[in-house]
Amino acid sequence: MKKILVSTALLAGVLSYAGGFRVSLQGVKQLAMAHTSAHAEDASVAFFNPAGMSFIPSKLSIVAGGFGASNKVTFQNLNTLNSTETDNPMGTPIYAAITYKPMDKLSVGFSFSTPFGSTIQYPYDWEGREMVQKLELKSFYFQPMVSYKMADWMSFGVSYIYARGKVNWDKAVTQFGGTVNINDEKASGHGYGFGFYFRPDPKFDVSIAYRSPVDMKAKKGTATFTVPAQNTVNTLLGLNAAGQDGFTATLPLVSEYTIGMTYKVTPKWLISADFNYHGWERYSKLTLDFANAPIGNQTDPTILVSPKNFRNSKTVRLGTQYAFSNMIFGRLGAYYDESPYSDDNFIPETPSFDSFVLTGGLGFKLNKFGVDVAGGYVMPQSRDVNNKTLGFYGQAKAKAFYFGLGLSYNAF
């Protein structure tokens, strides 16, 4: 029974990175330029660096947008040559932000985003069904923030992060010929962010930002077993009449450091670059405390500890924009995203790959209104899976693409 539920300890990976990696979809304009951050043209800068609000040219700025995200993962067992492909529905992350300058040097704002969220679905009878059959994740970030312009060329900003999360996970319990559903709809956590934004020259912007770790606390999680011999399993594991047991866990979301720069080569042409560093090293293990079920691996049989062995990861981004006119803008970008774990720690719940991503898009300005469209094509590198802890071996491949539509309004 212990083997069945070891993979429930992967909740933290799911709640931290949708699909096992950071899905950069918090601004349509930013995505078109490789999701670079040093762009203080409207309220979309708020998620990336609260200090950027001070350099928005409008006193009141409002943005909103959404994306479609499609991804598929293929796993092949090299011994049997059996191949399994996920059938994931389209993900639809959204974002919105508003900023306002009550005084010349002071800016306030609010950002709402869904930075982590996806669904991964395997055939219910596939060989890894005891690890995952279907996994749905939703997360929401609410960030009030403030920025102060310390000089004409420099500002400092801070934000408070309130995060909410929901996970719904189906897995097989082959020992009893049934399934278990892992569910928590009220996981929450708190964090903060701060940053500096510099414009030492009208042609040159520099953004330096930090987003803290967020410990998502699952206080009322529920594990529900559905098996033919329900009464026997209920008694064996100390479940209630509905086949349920509760659990608690602290699910770590990691820190992120970002340095971004934008340089206007000409009045019509700009180039942007970003470097992101993710502090995944703190995710070395996860502890789950079940209310009654004796499925742990510690002195207390209700406590289950699972090693994770994640490592810090980096992302390098390069984007560009060219103004064809005062109303039409073309954008291109590319970035390289590292996986936060090795082949020895690959997990099908959060499949992660070293990936090259190509992006592009168009922007349209209509007086105070802006409309942006963008797309991204992901080229993940295949992985030789060798997870001895889970007994999971083979080769994994993936493919993914994104598209988005964003609206902006710089009122006055």
TrEMBL record:
A Pfam family this chain is assigned to: Toluene_X
Keywords: Cell outer membrane, Membrane, Signal, Transmembrane, Transmembrane beta strand
Compartments, as annotated in UniProt: Cell outer membrane
Membrane topology label: Multi-pass membrane protein
Similarity remark: Belongs to the OmpP1/FadL family.
Listed name of the protein: Outer membrane protein transport protein
